[in-house]
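Section 5.1 Outputs to date
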Amino acid sequence: MSSLRAMRSLTGLGQNLRRARLARRFSMAELAMRAGISERTLTRLEKGDPGVGIGNLASVLAALGSPAVLADLMSPENDAVGLARALEAVPRRGRSFSSGKPGQPANSGKPGQTSGEAGEQKDSAQSKPSARKGIAF
């Protein structure tokens, strides 16, 4: 293995597997038989050997009563780095829902017009139904 971090992770995984086996009071022979692997393979797993197949790890986890642990390792809910990257990709600025058009100020009047003037125009247009043209929905 090229990465020191990966080797340390595998060693830690092996130690955790050994602790789990001992907490359940399984001998190496008993756990190996339950998992359908050899004792030598179990020993290699507990030592953090990177050459042991992932299928063997899955068998041992199932024999220990934790078959879903392997699938949950990099699930989206548990992937902190993936979630952080996804949040970075979200646009920082969204559409203003009060104006109706992107980039237009919330007063929805003419450029340079204050929100009070825009409100007066709306009131006058609503009070004169004949002044409104077009189709109303």
